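Methods: holo model generation. Sequences were used as deposited, without trimming of termini or removal of tags, and paired with ligand SMILES retrieved from the corresponding compound records. Each pair was processed once, and we did not select among multiple samples. The sequence and flavin-adenine dinucleotide SMILES for this entry were:
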Amino acid sequence: MTHYADREINVDFIDALTTFIERVVRPVETRYAAELSTTGTIDPTAQLSERRALRRQSAELGYYSAHMPAELGGFGLNAATIAAAYRAIGRSGLLLADRGGVLPNVEGPYLSMAAFNDAQREQYLSPLMRAEIEGCFALTEPDSGSDAGNMRTKATLEQDTWTISGTKRFITHGAHADFVQVIAVTDPDAAPSQRHSAFIVDSGTPGLSVGGTYGTLGEDHPVDLVFEDVRVPTSAMIGERGRALPYMLSGIGRARLNIGALAIGKAEYLLSRMTDYAGEREAFGRPISKFQYVQQFIVDSSIEIEAGLGLMDRAAECAESDDHTARRLTASVKLYATEMLSRVADRAIQLHGGMGVTHEGGVERYYRDARAMRVYEGSTELLKWNIARWLGLKTD
Ligand SMILES: Cc1cc2nc3c(=O)[nH]c(=O)nc-3n(C[C@H](O)[C@H](O)[C@H](O)COP(=O)(O)OP(=O)(O)OC[C@H]3O[C@@H](n4cnc5c(N)ncnc54)[C@H](O)[C@@H]3O)c2cc1C
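and the model returned the structure below.
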């Protein structure tokens, strides 16, 4: 029988983090209440600078890198605790707590960075954990997304210099990062699992440019990153040549669990908004909470949130291992929770009636926000395909 790691949640950490969110992040977001109510968002430049300031405070307290192993300077907290932390961020309903305001999004330290060598740890990982610099991760391309192994970006070696050429698409934080982790084909004739290598490229390296920014229906502004004969030394390689796939996969289960937990937290926030509004709003001389169709929005959401929490628990129990059960459950919670959040956000709008579709009502932005979560870090359909395989079905 597989022995799974400790699944106890560190309650003291969650309490401290929640206090930080309420005492530090909420007052900052309150300053933007009028803008949020008029536009449904906060100006992207202001979001960027507020999150930078917040995550530095979070990093000073160790929260920002609490998931990283103790030998790398983190708290080494287990998967269950970190998932509970992302859930707390979702429950706060705060835009600035999300996306790297308190815990890392793509700009911050990932577990897979344990593969960095000593020099890379000193130059990149340590300042990243102190929130002094920011990164991004470049995998997707114009012609390869879910099918990432089919990428065209290539790196060729001449003496002690790699030359990287290609275009990466939808790169979150790509326009603001101090360095890029980029995956490229280095060994096209090797077995599919050994064709790709990972490199660190400093922004500002000649030949690397931002090709264009995508506006999206949510808060994301991913960019194209263009590599035109970008030259880096052999020391820029992460881990071993041809080993980008295991590098990318290490920690992916926990990343998916965290997205699922964040989505569950956001659904809980919307549930409380629905419950409050249903009690306050009156129609036909009584609170709308007395109508069964309205109750159904709340009851269905509550049941689905509880189901998500059960799945989150199961996934957290095994997320630190890398067997088929762990992969299946972490993919399942990411898939279920992001789909569920979209349903809950849709109900929250409907329950708020006309006010639901306005920025002023303050629930429509969760609907927009939820949508992209079903696409990145494994689309719903790709994850179903993978789960089928992990269940032993033939998929090719
Ligand atoms: C907001 C946002 C931020 C992003 N940030 C980053 C980032 O920082 N770095 C990065 O590298 N990428 C990033 N991405 C890219 C993201 O990872 C890809 O969009 C995602 O992998 C899907 O790839 P695609 O867009 O090419 O769609 P495709 O792979 O072309 O998929 C199109 C459709 O086909 C379906 N499909 C594909 N394969 C299968 C299958 N095997 N079985 C069933 N259905 C399938 C998909 O589910 C989808 O419905 C981001 C995307 C978004 C939207």
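The radius of gyration is 22 Å.
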